[in-house]
Amino acid sequence: MNALEAMVSNYHDAMRRKSADALAALYAEDAIHEIPFTVPGFPPRFEGREAVRAAYAAMWDASPVVIDDVETTALHQTSED
Question: Which residue has the higher pLDDT, 2 or 31?
């Protein structure tokens, strides 16, 4: 498993466990998290690791949804060239 696959695996694990702390640990302190679709009451952009942690903790604490599985259908690594 390469570094990208490991990171995605950790992301999926955080989602399944609904762990805002595990999710936030994957982000840089000054990360920007943008969501291309909106969920009512959930902003489409978060600035900073702590904003990601707070938003997901609030959403997951308020939701009875249980995430059984997260599946990767495609994974493409790009360069910044």
Answer: 31
